[in-house]
Amino acid sequence: MAKTIIVSNRLPVKISQENGKYNYMPSEGGLATGLGSIYKDGDNIWIGWPGLAVSKADHQKEITKKLKTESMKPVFLTNTEIEEFYEGFSNETLWPNFHYFNQYIVFDDDMWRAYQKVNRKFARAIAEVLEPEDTIWVHDYQLLLLPEMLREFAPKASIGFFLHIPFPSYESFRLLPWRRELLEGMLGADFLGFHTYDDMRHFLSSVNRLAGLGNSNGMINVDNRKVMVDALPMGIDYDKYAESAAAKETLEREARYRESIGAQKLILSIDRLDYSKGIPQRLKAFELFLEQNPDYREKVSLLMVVVPSRDQVGKYKELKEEIDLLVGRINGNYSRLNWTPIHYFYRSFPLNALSAFYRMAEVAMVTPMRDGMNLVCKEFIASKLDKKGVLILSEMAGASKELSDAILINPNDMGELVNAIKTALTMPVKKQMANMISMQRSLQRYNIHHWVNLFMERLHHIKHEQKALETQ
Ligand code: GDG
């Protein structure tokens, strides 16, 4: 029986080591929940890096054995590979380029070679379990070369690829010396999915300019093989967030937090530490808002969660310092004994705490400079069981294409950001509820399960068409 293989850089598990023993915790990411019903079924399997460097062979064996019972297969990376492939080419070359931070790109041939080598390592790990008619779903920018590598030894397999970050315009993408190889790598897939229509359009334009291939309604002809491209915005596990917002533990936490914080209104900000998320700009907008609206001082606070991420990469270290300085400056200038303008946390929280934050906040500020989709804004909406609350959302987030009832802003326009804060804090409840209801309806319908089903449906559809063509 043909099986489905999910491939992503990280496995949906967090492994930590304590007193020489390994502890395994399932990771709560949206992808893991959405694909849970698929990869745990029958012989299906998820292949990826377990998130830590393990050099000893017997330890690798132990982890492999344990993960097998959870339908996972690890690909182990050496410290040099983590540095050059993951922190290097993936996060210092592709990430800035795909998010239009081109001044941050590191161009380094050694990193490129490590990227090729690790993609090949993934291909070999897949080959060990692959049957000719299997379906393989590859995820994200760390594995752009993988579809073509798989195609070489499994020409009949159904290969799908989804990009979770933006695909840049040709003018940005062309800056990469390895642009052709990267595109050819992606075109090994039968079906390629992107979050938005614009990402898809940019990809098709690069395919046209670099590979000389046109398309007809998203259908490309690659060496007599049909490749389909489409926009498929990723949804969230809506019920999970709605249920967590109603859970007893969440309500208890909310009551506790409220007691410590006091009665002032809350603006919420949650992101991984990343320059693409516009964290310093958000802080500056809040500072300007307090400066221009003295009557709001002591009445509103910013609750800011920054989740540590990629802190071995230079630009991320600099960003962390910039945020620390800004928070220090604003709190230093405006704090009163009974009021802290910014409650800042540089750590991650359990889901119940996150849900309590979503419930408590009158306003969520999701203002990235650039974001493939952004799930935080969708989770905020799903958690608003009383339908009250306002979302301020950046036009540069993929989610803005679906959530047109949010207050949409350009994160580079400080004046607009400051006005949006005022508009959000003074929005009549009736209008808040009307907007919230309409956004909830759409997110409930286009949830993560809908997204997974649609992806699989498209992939099987194009494979079916290919087969029909071959037998003609
Ligand atoms: C990439 C793309 C795209 C955050 N803090 C905590 C916590 N989180 C969870 C959120 C949310 C997730 O992390 C972050 O997802 P985003 O979508 O906002 O951002 P990226 O990590 O950059 O993801 C993005 C996504 O892929 C999917 O395609 O939307 O554009 O960049 O789910 O809830 N979770 C817990 N504690 C925290 O403190 N438990």
From TrEMBL:
Full-protein positions shown: 1 to 472 of 723
Catalysed reactions, semicolon-separated: D-glucose 6-phosphate + UDP-alpha-D-glucose = alpha,alpha-trehalose 6-phosphate + UDP + H(+)
Name recorded for this polypeptide: Alpha,alpha-trehalose-phosphate synthase
Keywords: Glycosyltransferase, Transferase
SUBUNIT field: Homotetramer.
Pathway named in the protein's UniProt entry: Glycan biosynthesis; trehalose biosynthesis
Enzyme Commission number: 2.4.1.15
Keyword Glycosyltransferase: yes
Family statement drawn from the similarity comment of this UniProt entry: Belongs to the glycosyltransferase 20 family. In the C-terminal section; belongs to the trehalose phosphatase family.
